[in-house]
Amino acid sequence: MKIWKVLILCMVAGMLSGSVVSAKEGCIASPSSEDSSVFPEKDYVVSPWIENSLDTGDSIFGILSTQYITQGQTITHNVNVGSGIDYLEVDLNWGDTSDSLALSIYTPSGSKIGTYHDDSDGSVNGRIHINIDPSQGYVEQGIWKFKVYGESVSGTEEYTFNVYQH
Questions:
Q1: How buried is 146 (Cβ within 10 angstroms: 0-12 exposed, 13-18 middle, 19+ buried)?
Q2: Which of 142, 119, 8 is nearest to 66 (CA)?
Q3: What is the pLDDT of residues 49-83, one digit of tens each?
Q4: Where would I find the beta strands (DSSP E) of 71-126?
Q5: Among residues 39, 17, 48, 60, which one has the least CA distance to residue 165?
Q6: Phi, psi for 3 (deg, rounded to 5)
Q7: How many Cα atoms occupy the beta-carbon half-sphere of 109 within 13 Å?
Q8: Considering only CA atoms, which of 96, 90, 73, 110 is closest in space to residue 164?
């Protein structure tokens, strides 16, 4: 139980020390964003997570959150992404294929990367495990928003949520 308190304390400290992103560093995920002249365009490639033994030791501490969600509920997870991050590994795991969760991802500049479902990572297993890679350069620095939505939930569903910065 003590480790959970330390993890929560680290997560809160990380959110409080979040840095401000300047317009020069901002990125948009889609050319259809309202004011693409303010931010240089940066696309992200979202792909199923594939275990890479070379990446096992190079990730920056990810968040670990265990939550409970009900039908129609949305829970937002804010993650402070540091500078010089090559890609993000996102893992939403509820393990129950009879329930369905959706995950919407937003960059610090407010652009929506997309909404993902159980089959977005190539298998239906009660889990969304994906990588988010910038098409060039580094992942946008700042507070990313990950919104978990109870799309089809019977009763209450427990899930874990992790984001690793590589």
A1: buried
A2: 8
A3: 876 544 555 666 677 889 999 999 999 999 999 99
A4: 74-81, 88-93, 100-106, 112-116
A5: 60
A6: -65, -35
A7: 26
A8: 90
